[in-house]
Write a structure and sequence with these properties.
Layout lengths: L7 H10 L11 E9 L2 E9 L4 H16 L7 H8 L1 E3 L2 H16 L9 H6 L14 H8 L8 E3 L2 E3 L9 H18 L5 E5 L2 E5 L8 E6 L6 E7 L3 E6 L4 E3 L5 E3 L14 E8 L2 H14 L1 H10 L5 E7 L3 E4 L7 E3 L5 E4 L4
Parallel strand pairs: 15-17
Antiparallel strand pairs: 1-2, 2-6, 3-5, 4-5, 6-7, 7-10, 8-9, 9-16, 10-13, 11-12, 13-14, 14-15
Helix pairs in contact: 2-7, 7-8, 8-9
């Protein structure tokens, strides 16, 4: 499975923001664990009396990776891609059903069948293997890209010949949701999950204040700004995360436009989605990047009941904020200006 890898800077900013907090109740203390899963480093911090809790959350991530990985030959997704049809577990079928619904809702800006195109660009391989595919190859691969051709009857999924599925655009968001649900079931009120840069906050910090989540400057090494949030997922997609420069000096990034087979270039260089459900935030961070600023803003206005807020960074240096974040976002870089997206 191939996931976006956000820089460690976000995690560091979060780490420092929580230093010095006290346990909120007798017997509860910080329980932490770092581990590698889903092609990234994950870090769990939860305030609980149960010292085994972080290891239980690690098991959740590893179990989902074993089911969803597109590169592990024994995973459900890999078997589906290899055989063209497969009986899926309840979890995997449920996630695929939600993902297909989000593909439809975004008009195909998110498409879970774009994997063959991403692979042709070399983004599933090492950096030395990345290159611009020949136009005729892309044209042939694009003929296989269509989420509407995926069938799911009960828990049995099927793909047309040559199609391949990748749930990487929603898997980490879903994993964070599952971990957060497990924490709530265990009575935990304060936790911070950093799933390779996909951030999930449970409640507030133990002292009752908001968590501070840093967003990287997509045009440099510093910070764009900091969000103050509680009980929210914060998920970012950016062109700076995985890219290569060709022999002509042109930069190509990994976020593909399913309509063209080329990296999405619609005026955005970073999209951050803040909301209550990580799966939705994960999916939208990719889909809205593909849409560009105007369509992304229109989509947000048309889906106000989804309870998500946005930080859109345009290639001309403007940070577009939805109104719900206007007093929760602090700009750190003087190279940008802020505009609030009208809500009507």
């Amino acid at each position: 499975m191939h996931y976006r890898l956000l820089p460690a800077l976000c995690a560091l900013a979060l780490l420092f923001s929580a230093c010095g907090t006290a346990s909120p109740a007798s017997g509860e203390q910080e329980r932490s664990l770092g581990f590698f899963a889903m092609d990234t480093y994950m870090n769990i911090r939860a305030w609980s009396a149960d010292e085994a809790l972080p290891a239980e959350l690690e098991a959740v991530a590893l179990d989902l990776e074993a089911r969803l990985s597109v590169t592990r030959e024994d995973s459900e997704v890999a078997r589906l891609n290899r055989e063209g049809s497969a009986q899926l577990s309840e979890d995997t079928a449920g996630l695929l059903r939600r993902a297909l619904a989000l593909c439809a809702e975004t008009g195909g800006a998110l498409d879970v069948t774009v994997y063959p195109v991403v692979r042709a660009w070399g983004f599933t391989l090492g950096e030395e293997d990345r290159a611009v595919p020949p136009p005729e190859e892309l044209a042939e691969l694009l003929s296989r890209v269509d989420y509407r051709a995926v069938t799911l009857e009960g828990n049995r999924a099927a793909l047309p010949a040559g199609a391949e599925l990748d749930l990487g655009a929603v898997a980490k968001g879903y994993t964070g949701d599952r971990m957060a649900a497990a924490l709530r079931d265990a009575g935990v009120q304060h936790a911070l999950l950093d799933l390779g840069g996909n951030i999930h906050t449970l409640g507030t910090k133990p002292d009752g204040s908001d968590w501070h989540v840093a967003i990287q400057d997509p045009r440099g090494e510093g910070l764009l700004g900091v969000l103050s949030v509680s009980d929210r997922a914060v998920i970012t997609s950016g062109g700076y995360e995985r890219y290569f420069v060709d022999e002509n000096g042109e930069l190509w990034w990994h976020i593909m436009d399913p309509a063209t087979g080329y990296p999405a270039r619609n005026g955005l260089i970073s999209v951050t989605v803040v909301g209550g459900e990580g799966l939705v935030c994960d999916a939208l961070s990719t889909a809205l990047f593909v849409m560009g600023p105007e369509r992304a803003s229109e989509f947000w206005r048309a889906h106000r009941d989804w309870d998500v807020e946005l930080v859109l960074v345009t290639e001309n240096g403007t940070v577009l904020l939805t109104p719900g974040l206007s007093d929760r976002f602090s700009l750190s870089s003087g190279d940008y200006g802020i505009q609030v997206i009208p809500d009507g």
